Structures
1.
Amino acid sequence: MAKSVNKVILLGNVGKDPEIRSTSGGTMVANFTLATSDRQKDAQGNWQDRTEWHNMVAFTRLAEIVRDYVKKGSKLYVEGKIQTRSWDDKETGAKRYRTEIIVNDLSLLSGREEGSGGYSRPAASSGSTASFDQRPPASQDEYAQSSEISDDDIPF
């Protein structure tokens, strides 16, 4: 079978506050929309902005992060995959479709004042990005040992 790839990378703003729910099995799910904009010239040579809305779905730990830190207006960097699901409409019996981005990775790019929803960064950090690494933090001793460079580390 030939190799295939289903990967999406988006950078945009959240359209409205996320909807948080749990499945019958207890898995947390966050649904929200993300707007991306593209700029093109029209027939008269004027720039026109075109906004595309993406349906986003995050599960488990990422859903908790969305619940705690994401709100309308938040700027996000998202990696995920496209998935289309279908169902029969209960009222009309018609086949319905919804294309969604299943979130695999998420980085908050908004500052607190821009709608990051209560995320507070350490006072020493003045940058405006936050990425969620789920590895346990290293102790200061481990950090000091890992940052030491010896002559053996130099490649020439």
Note: Confidence is low (pLDDT under 50) at residues 115-129.
2.
Amino acid sequence: MKNIVILISGGGSNMVAIAKAAERERWADRWDARIAAVISNRTDAKGLGLAQSLGLKTATLDHKAYASREAFDEALMALIDSHDPQGRPALVVLAGFMRILTPAFVNHYAGRLLNIHPSLLPAFPGLHTHQRALAAGCKFAGATVHQVTAELDHGPILAQAVVPVLPTDDEHTLAARVLTQEHLIYPRAIVDTLRSL
């Protein structure tokens, strides 16, 4: 079985979209894959309750309890790997996980670590993507699924979705339309990656 571990920090809407796609598309039967756990670095993450309501195992690991980013990432790797019998999950999926990961973490999961970013990379890496796209006068915005590398938001692109920027858009309306596309492309990119494993 190809075990998938999803990392979240907040609402978990992409995690829910992935979990529902896994159920609807019968990933266990078709791709021999399952979501083994949802892990958050925040105990108050709304997505934890949503994951539990979907019958998924959950765990938390509070980054504030660790003296350094390296110490937290080392503990997080141990927790993630504990959710696979071989200690090597097929994929680690970042779904609104708001932590910059250390090179050691990224290297540990090289080629198996995915992220979704709310811009058409390589444009607007980092935070405040919708605000920056509007300020730049972009006619289009979107979302990108990519492999994670040590350089923030610069890994190989796996999928993208484009949405038009409307004259009436503010960062909230644009973010909401981009998010609907994220929910579509992230599960597809995960399946494409599983098929290549």
Note: The longest strand covers residues 33-40.
3.
Amino acid sequence: MRSSPLPQHEFLADAYWFTAYGKNVEASCGHHGNALLSRYPIIYQENEDISAHWLEGRGLLHCVLNAGKTMPRLHCLNVHLGLFERWRKRQLAAMVARVEALIPPNEPLLIAGDFNDWHRKGHRYLCDALRATDVFTTVRGAPARTFPSFLPFLPLDRIYVRGLDVRDARVHYTQRKLRASDHAALSAELEVLPRPSHPLPER
């Protein structure tokens, strides 16, 4: 099968989705990073370098979506954190600092990605610092187990939200021959509430 000349995120988006991509690592064989596909226009995007060590190039892709005239702006953060806890602490602190500095408390926030946080220390820190909730803890009582995909027992991947109503959350498994990743995929059904007729005051 002939490979597509388009980058992977553009190939998946086709002509129906808006896309953003933050390149984190480039090598002789190609590059990789974080990507976001959205049905809503992406009105802002920035990929912040949160690498804690030269061995691991890590980025935080921050996008703002325009969900419609009656809806507040939706902030989406896409991350893949480091393998070692001391690196993740620095990366989580950078994420919290960015949210506090750039995202108003009355605008909804979604954070998703591979947190490599099997001991759930980062989970507790993030929930407390940002007043965010894990969608699977809300629906199922505990973070989803996603790794390895053929027999998942580690909760590495998360979807956190703030200012959004969680309607449902699911883990998606595939047959071994169809598996495209060593992680299971996550999805959540969320509701964005229309903005009030009188905007909330900024803190």
Note: The longest strand covers residues 18-27.
4.
Amino acid sequence: MIGGSNLLEFVLASAAIILVPGPSVMFTIARAVAWGRGTAMLTVLGNALGMVVLSTLIAIGLGPALQRSHLLLETVQTAGGVYLIYLGYQALKHRQEHADDMVALNEAKPSNWNTVRQGFMVGVLNPKALVFFAAIFPQFVDPTVGNVTVQLMIFGLIFALLAVLLDGSWALIVGTSRDWFVNSRERLVFLRTVGGVVMCSLGVLVLIPVITSNL
């Protein structure tokens, strides 16, 4: 159903985008800093469930259309690349404010159910995930080996599993060393800066094939 080379490339690209300190990662880190590993891991679980729902909706709605139209595929990829650059710019522009918000988090600890629910909402409404699912997933699809919608759904499940593994690592690391993060906003600013640079770079990499194919 999915070619081996495509799958490997997809896993590497997914790992790169998940590791970028975007909305989901920063939300997980904030929860780990405020309430420790348990709350952060439940946040990761909810976030992954939200991603599964989001990727399934996109696969069902976008898959058939992409299978019929190369122009639509290029349009979606272009929009996704531009939006990734925009998200990276915003992350860089507001990195100081985001760090302050995380350090100053003083809400009451939510229940386990509310923690999963809030993580789900972050996952299903995550603009980074939306762009990645809609703009980058199609690059790894091969219409000659099977149904595009099914391939997109499989990619969504793989992405969610990787998110549990990698975001869960953030949750465990930060939850264990929470004082180290809280006592230095510069470290949080650095994380956000790295995230912004990587998102901008991924946006450029998405745009390059589209541009070169039309030269």
Note: The chain has one domain: 4-213.
